[in-house]
Design goal:
By secondary structure, the protein is mostly helical. It is built from 1 helix and no strands. The longest helix has about 35 residues. Keywords: Membrane, Transmembrane, Transmembrane helix.
Length: about 35
């Protein structure tokens, strides 16, 4: 197994996880902001 491929795989996984976290937190904040009106 190539070390560079493994590193790229984990970096891509980290990017996907951070995108999912940002999407979920943005949705929660948007729903909280909308619920105050």
């Amino acid at each position: 197994m190539n070390l560079l491929a493994l590193e790229l795989f984990f970096v891509g996984l980290l990017g996907l996880a951070s995108l999912a976290i940002a999407f979920v937190s943005g949705t929660v904040i948007w729903n909280l902001f909308r619920g105050q009106r």
